[in-house]
Design a protein that fits this description.
The protein is of the alpha/beta class. Helices cover 24% and strands 16% of the residues. It has 3 domains: 1-16 and 511-578, Immunoglobulin-like (Sandwich); 20-123 and 199-495, Glycosidases (TIM Barrel, Alpha-Beta Barrel); 127-186, Oligo-1,6-glucosidase, Domain 2 (Oligo-1,6-glucosidase, domain 2). It has helices at 34-37, 48-53, 55-61, 96-108, 127-135, 201-217, 273-285, 302-305, 320-324, 329-345, 362-365, 387-403, 432-436, 481-484, 491-504, and strands at 10-14, 28-32, 65-68, 72-73, 85-89, 112-117, 147-148, 171-175, 181-186, 221-224, 292-295, 316-317, 351-353, 407-411, 512-515, 522-527, 530-535, 541-542, 547-552, 557-558, 564-566, 570-576. It has an 8-stranded parallel β-sheet with strand order 12-11-10-6-3-2-14-13. It has a 6-stranded antiparallel β-sheet with strand order 1-15-16-17-22-19. Strand 10 (221-224), helix 7 and strand 11 form a beta-alpha-beta unit. It starts with 9 loop residues before the first strand and ends with a strand. Bound molecules: alpha-D-glucopyranose (GLC). Residues 78, 81, 118, 189, 225-226, 245, 296, 357-358 line the site of alpha-D-glucopyranose.
C-alpha cells in the first residue's frame, strides 16, 4: 500500500502527555445509576449487592473506574439526590457492609470507585432541616439553610423571584408550630431539597468530614453535584433569566465556546465556590493515591468552567458543552478545540461525556429530526426518535469521543446502544421535574429505565423476581447484554474493542492534530498513531490512502477501486502502515 504524507495537512491542537500521569487524566469512568443497574434483592430496584454481582461486566468492558450516583439514606424525592444522612446507605440499596464489599471487589478487579456528593442541598428529612423547622425564625438551626422573610403584605410573596430548576418558585413558605405562615426557604431544585448556606462554617466543616468518612472507607474520588451552585450572590438579588440545568436553550447555536447549556444568574458560578474546592483539594491531598474530584458544573464558556479544575481545585469537570453541541461537524470541531484550549491553559484533562441520568440518551437524542436537540425527556405524543439512525449516530459519536485524548464518562447502558424509553406512561413517571412543570417537561425517567442483561428472562434479567421499578420496552431484548456479547460488530463488542485499543495505544493521554482536507462535514484527527475519521455528512468519504482500519462504528463501504470509504454517520479508527 502507498503511504501518503499527510503532515502538511495537520494542525496541532493538543500535545500528548505522559501515559504515566495521574489515573484520572485519561480514565474511562462508567456511571452506575444504582436503582437501575442490577437488582439483587428482588424488589425491582437496583442495589449495591446487584452492583457487586455485575462488576465483572465492567471489568470485561474495560473501563478504569466506576462512578455511583447516590445510594445514601434518602426519602427518594429526587431519586437519592435528596440526602437525609450522608454517612449511611439507604436500606433500598443495602448497607454500609454491602458498600464495603462492593468497593473491595471493585478494587480487586482493578476498578476505582467514585461516589456522588450532594452538597448544595440536603433532604427535607435531614436532621438539620428538621431541627431548623422546629427551632423557628432567627434560630442558629435555621442559619445553616437559606430561610428569609417573605415580601409584600404579611410576607406572602417569596423573598425573591428565583425559579426552581425543576419548575415553579425556588421558595417554599413554612408553617410555624402555632399554625401561622412563617418564613420561606430556598430550594433551587424540589421543595424537598432545601439549599444549604455555604457561608456557615458548620456546613463547611460537616462536608469536609463527610469527605473524610468516605475517603477513610477507601473511595477514589467524588463527583460533586451542582458544583457551581453552592454559593449565591450576596443579598440573593432578583433575576429574570431562565434557569435550566438540563435542556439549556437549544435555540442558541454553538459559537466559540458557548453551547447554551451553561447556567447563569446570581445562584450559579459565584467566585466563592472556588474557596470550597481549594479546601477540599487539601483534604484529598491528605490521602495517598491520587483521589479525584469531578465537577458537575453547567458553566459556560469553557474558559469559565476550566477555573474549577485549576491545579489547587478539582481534577475534572464534565464537558457539557460537547454533550450539548448539535450533530454538526464544524460546531463539534469548534467545541473540541475550545475544550483543549481551556483545559490546557490550567493543565487539566478534558472530561468528555455524551449521556448521563439527567439527559435523553445520545442514542435517542441523535435520532431526532434536529439531532442533538435536548428535550427534557420524550413521551407519548412527542416526536419519536428514529431508532436505527439514532443508534448509528450514537456509535459514531461514541467512537469519536473515545478517540479523543482526555478522560471520558460512559453512562450505564450506552455500551449496549440503549435508547431512552420514549413512550413511558406519564402516570408511571417519578421525576419531580415532570410534576413541578405540570407535565410540560416529561422529565428524566426515560433514561433511567432498568438495564436489560438477558434477552429471554423476565425483566431482561434485571432482577431475580423479574420486577422492574419502571417498565422496559419489549424491543429491548435486542439490546440485552447476552444478545450482544461475543457478537462481532455489536455495540457492546465495539465499545470493548475501542476501550482496549484506547488503552493499548495510549489515546487517553495522547494528543490531537486535526487532519484537514476531508471536507467540512468530516471530523478527522490523529491521536498518537491512530487516525480517527468521523463522517457526519450525507455521503461516504474516502479514508486517507495508506491507512489500515482498526475499528469501525459500522461496516465500512468500498469504492470501485477497492479503497475504503467512511460511510455517512460513521467513525473509523485507522493506523498508517509504513
Ligand atoms: C444534579 C443531578 C440531578 C439532580 C440535581 C439535584 O444535576 O445530576 O440528577 O436532580 O443535581 O441534586
Amino acid at each position: 500500500m502507498t503511504t501518503i504524507d499527510t503532515r502538511p495537512l495537520r494542525t496541532l491542537v493538543h500535545t500528548a502527555g505522559s501515559p504515566e500521569g495521574e489515573w484520572w487524566r485519561d480514565a474511562v469512568i462508567y456511571q452506575v445509576y444504582p436503582r437501575s443497574f442490577a437488582d439483587a434483592s428482588g424488589d425491582g430496584i437496583g442495589d449495591l449487592p446487584g452492583v457487586t454481582a455485575r462488576l465483572d461486566h465492567l471489568a470485561e468492558l474495560g473501563v478504569d473506574a466506576v462512578w455511583l450516583s447516590p445510594f445514601y439514606r434518602s426519602p427518594q424525592a429526587d431519586a437519592g439526590y435528596d440526602v437525609a444522612d450522608y454517612r449511611d446507605v439507604d436500606p433500598l440499596f443495602g448497607t454500609l457492609a454491602d458498600f464495603d464489599e462492593m468497593l473491595e471487589r471493585a478494587h480487586r478487579l482493578g476498578l476505582r470507585v467514585i461516589v456522588d456528593l450532594v452538597p448544595n442541598h440536603t433532604s427535607d428529612e435531614h436532621v438539620w432541616f428538621q431541627a431548623a423547622l422546629a427551632a423557628g425564625a432567627g434560630s442558629p438551626e435555621r442559619a445553616r439553610y437559606l430561610f428569609r422573610e417573605g415580601r409584600g403584605v404579611d410576607g406572602t410573596e417569596p423573598p425573591n423571584n428565583w425559579q426552581s430548576i425543576f419548575g415553579g418558585p425556588a421558595w417554599t413558605r413554612t408553617t410555624d408550630p402555632d399554625g401561622t405562615p412563617g418564613e420561606w426557604y430556598l430550594h433551587l431544585f424540589d421543595s424537598r431539597q432545601p439549599d444549604l448556606d455555604w457561608e456557615h462554617p458548620e456546613v463547611r466543616s460537616e462536608f469536609e468530614d463527610v469527605l473524610r468518612f468516605w475517603l477513610d472507607r477507601g473511595v477514589d474520588g467524588f463527583r460533586i453535584d451542582v458544583a457551581h451552585g453552592m454559593v449565591k450572590a450576596p443579598g440573593l438579588p432578583d433575576w429574570d433569566g431562565h434557569v435550566s440545568m438540563i435542556d439549556g436553550s437549544d435555540d442558541v447555536e454553538p459559537t466559540d465556546t458557548v453551547s447554551g447549556s451553561g447556567n447563569q444568574g446570581p445562584m450559579f458560578d459565584q467566585e466563592g465556590v472556588h474557596d470550597i474546592y481549594r479546601a477540599w483539594n487539601r483534604v484529598l491531598a491528605e490521602y495517598p493515591g491520587d483521589r479525584a474530584l469531578v465537577a458537575e458544573a453547567w458553566v459556560e464558556p469553557l474558559s469559565r468552567l476550566s477555573r474549577y479544575v485549576r491545579s489547587d481545585e478539582m481534577h475534572q469537570a464534565f464537558n457539557f458543552a460537547f454533550l450539548a453541541t448539535h450533530w454538526h461537524a464544524p460546531a463539534l470541531r469548534t467545541v473540541v478545540e475550545a475544550s483543549y484550549r481551556a483545559s490546557d491553559a490550567v493543565g487539566a484533562p478534558t472530561t468528555w461525556v455524551l449521556s448521563n441520568h439527567d439527559v435523553v440518551r445520545h442514542a435517542s437524542r441523535l435520532g431526532l429530526a434536529e439531532p442533538g436537540s435536548r428535550p427534557n425527556g420524550i413521551g407519548r405524543g412527542d416526536e419519536q426518535p428514529d431508532e436505527a439512525l439514532g443508534l448509528q449516530r450514537a456509535r459514531c459519536a461514541s467512537l469519536l469521543m473515545l478517540g479523543l485524548p482526555g478522560s471520558a464518562y460512559l453512562y450505564q447502558g450506552e455500551e449496549l446502544g440503549l435508547p431512552d424509553h420514549t413512550s413511558l406512561d406519564d402516570d408511571l413517571r417519578q421525576d419531580p421535574a415532570f410534576f413541578r412543570t405540570g407535565g410540560a417537561e416529561r422529565g428524566r425517567d426515560g433514561c433511567r429505565v432498568p438495564l436489560p442483561w438477558s434477552a429471554t428472562e423476565d425483566g431482561f434479567g434485571f432482577s431475580p423476581s423479574g420486577v422492574t421499578w419502571l417498565p422496559q420496552p419489549e424491543e429491548w431484548a435486542s439490546y440485552a447484554l447476552d444478545a450482544q456479547r461475543g457478537v462481532p460488530g455489536s455495540t457492546y463488542e465495539t465499545y470493548r474493542a475501542a476501550l482496549q485499543l484506547r488503552r493499548e495505544s495510549g489515546l487517553g493521554s495522547g494528543g490531537l492534530e486535526w487532519l484537514r482536507g476531508l471536507g467540512d462535514d468530516v471530523i478527522a484527527f490523529v491521536n498518537r498513531d491512530v487516525l480517527v475519521v468521523a463522517n457526519l455528512g450525507t455521503g461516504p468519504v474516502p479514508l486517507p490512502a495508506g491507512a489500515e482500519i482498526l475499528l469501525a462504528s459500522i461496516d465500512p463501504a468500498f469504492a470501485d477501486d477497492g479503497s475504503v470509504l467512511v460511510p455517512s454517520d460513521a467513525t473509523i479508527w485507522a493506523r498508517y502502515t509504513d
